[in-house]
Specification:
Radius of gyration of chain A: 22 Å
Strand order of the largest sheet of chain A: 1-2
Number of helices of chain A: 3
Oligomer: heterodimer
Shape of chain B: flat
Largest sheet of chain B: 2 strands, antiparallel
Radius of gyration of chain B: 20 Å
Number of strands of chain A: 4
Shape of chain A: elongated
Largest interface: A-B, 41 and 36 residues
Number of helices of chain B: 4
Strand content of chain B: under 5%
Helix content of chain A: 40-55%
Structural class of chain A: alpha+beta
Chain lengths: 148, 144
């Protein structure tokens, strides 16, 4: 039951959703990229979210602290950014310099429509976290007014 | 006659509970997109209701060596009618049905509604406490 643990949880949510948004932007920007540093076309990236208290150390820490002053909100974190391993799209375009001998070009496994939908979802989640943060802030300010 | 100066421990406890509940709801909202996350809540209201109604049977203590059965002992009276901080723990809610494939059972609409409700409750509790102090102040100034 810390003073700012609710605000910290909301802030971690904001950070996570913003990173998700960055990843989606990168995917959309590279929807047609056929050459990357590693060779081959661009691979779609996604973020993996996990509750902050999933590791053994943090569970132990939370549980031992909760005996004294109750368990606090732990928020969310981005565990890793993973590459989508679905096969690349084959598009017939013999004029493309990256076409193989059959005239097919391997293009990124990015579906712009999916990315747009995910972007809406990320935006809404971000807004929900902003609302929660404002609620926590309002409550803290209200508490400061007690006894005035 | 013993009148405590700050004599509303239930209100303070309710304020605390509302604060902890806000933490739980914020955590739920932060974890909207976390696979396998189960929503958390604080079931303070039930404890408070039970403590205030006192609809439980209690054993009569006629000897100091008797074991108390749901009685109002002095120590439970001092921290707000048996409502102690240990009741304000997060409980994980596995019950609500999840329509989602990732095992997450957070419903944004419910959480936002709970958030708004909780904030209003917090405001109400803090206003009540303010009124309490206002009355004290009024008494100290002899009504002036």
């Amino acid at each position: 039951m810390g003073v700012f643990s609710a605000i910290n949880a909301s802030a971690s949510g904001l950070t996570a959703q913003r990173l998700r948004m960055d990843t989606i932007s990168e995917n959309i920007a590279n929807a047609n990229t056929t050459r990357t540093k590693t060779g081959g076309p661009y691979r779609r990236k996604t973020v993996v979210f996990e509750g902050s208290n999933d590791s053994f150390a943090s569970v132990l820490n939370t549980e031992s602290r909760s005996l004294v002053n109750g368990d606090g909100a732990s928020g969310v974190k981005v565990a890793k950014i993973v590459e989508d391993l679905t096969p690349f799209k084959k598009i017939y375009d013999p004029t493309n310099p990256d076409a193989d001998e059959d005239g097919n070009v391997s293009s990124p496994n990015v579906d712009v429509l999916t990315e747009m939908v995910n972007m809406i979802s990320a935006t809404r989640s971000y807004e929900a976290n902003v609302t929660a943060l404002n609620a926590s802030k309002g409550m803290a300010i209200k508490a400061l007014e007690i006894g005035k | 006659m013993s009148i405590k100066l700050f004599n509303n421990p239930i209100l303070e406890r309710a304020l605390d509970a509302s604060w902890v509940r806000n933490e739980a709801i914020s955590d739920n909202i932060a974890n909207i997109d976390t696979p396998g996350y189960k929503r958390k809540d604080v079931n303070f209201d039930d404890y408070l209701k039970a403590a205030m109604n006192k609809d439980t049977i209690s054993g009569l203590v006629s000897d100091p060596r008797h074991i108390k059965i749901n009685g109002t002992s002095d120590d439970s009276e001092s921290n707000g009618s048996g409502v102690s901080g240990s009741n304000m723990k997060f409980t994980t809610d596995y019950s609500s049905t999840s329509m989602r494939m990732d095992g997450n059972n957070v419903d944004v609409d419910t959480e936002m509604a709970e958030l708004a409700k909780n904030q209003i409750l917090y405001d109400a509790y803090s206003t009540l406490i303010n009124k309490d102090y206002g009355m004290l102040r009024s008494a100290i100034r002899e009504g002036r």
